[in-house]
């Protein structure tokens, strides 16, 4: 299918064996830690604390390895499982901030990692994993693509493609509102959508002349989806944002049908 992978490994497996039955001599994590750092980079990571994000300053080590098959999986229907050549990159935080656990990623990929730029590219890509998972959460839990009753693969692809546009817009809205919360709400909604939203939230027929900010609009959409918004409540999640967005779109469509 032409697909490639960048995965984070959790186990310190044996590597660089010429044959599967060769004695264990080299382990992946130890093999990387024994090498001097070949460069440094900084990534912004999400943490579960009062501060949702922090910068991690990482030492970078990369090399080529040969990964033997696991000892309990020695064969497949077509024959013996091969030893796989791949690139390994370690990103380790030498001096983490006080109270923070040191970050240490060991990434494996079938893509070429021959330079420092290649290694940083894989690290930066993996650092976006949480965003990718959040997008898929919107796609599966909000847009409910797994509940589709389509039996034809081509129809399912088209359905997922359509829902992906909606999921991307909600994901973009959640990220954009964090960095541009004082901008005009008309950057993310049409004038009609903003008017309907304001009238619904404030129970009034006359909206103000100046539009609300993106931060206010973001909270109001989430409130349509069940977000309470008390002082001690955390920021809205993607599910309440999705439900609120769906309600807003339904109200806008009804208004267009009735009023033209």
In summary, what is this structure?
This protein is an alpha+beta fold. 40% of the residues lie in helices and 17% in strands.
Report what the structure shows.
By secondary structure, this protein is α+β, with helices and mostly antiparallel strands. The protein has two domains: 6-127, Alpha-Beta Complex (Transposase Inhibitor Protein From Tn5, Chain A, domain 1); 133-259, Orthogonal Bundle (Transferase Inhibitor Protein From Tn5, Chain A, domain2), CATH 1.10.740.10. Helix content is 40%, strand content 17%. It has helices spanning 28-33, 116-127, 129-142, 153-179, 191-202, 214-224, 238-259, and strands at residues 6-8, 39-46, 53-67, 75-76, 79-80, 84-92, 104-109. The strands form two sheets. The protein has a five-stranded antiparallel beta sheet with strand order 1-7-6-3-2. Strands 4-5 form a two-stranded antiparallel ribbon. Helix 3 (129-142) crosses helix 4, helix 3 (129-142) packs across helix 7 (238-259) and helix 5 (191-202) packs across helix 7 (238-259). The model has no long low-confidence stretch (mean pLDDT 86).
Q: Could you tell me the number of beta strands?
A: 7
CATH topology of the largest domain: Transferase Inhibitor Protein From Tn5, Chain A, domain2
Secondary-structure element series: EHEEEEEEHHHHHH
Distance between the termini: 47 Å
Gross morphology is elongated
Our estimate of the beta-strand percent is: 15-25%
Strands ordered across the widest β-sheet: 1-7-6-3-2
Class by SSE composition: alpha+beta
Number of domains: 2
Question: From the alpha-carbon coordinates, what is the Rg to the nearest angstrom?
Answer: 25 Å
The helix fraction, in percent, is 40-55%
User: pLDDT below 50 for ≥5 consecutive residues: which ranges?
Assistant: none
At the fourth CATH level, what is the homologous superfamily of the largest domain?
Answer: Transferase Inhibitor Protein From Tn5, Chain
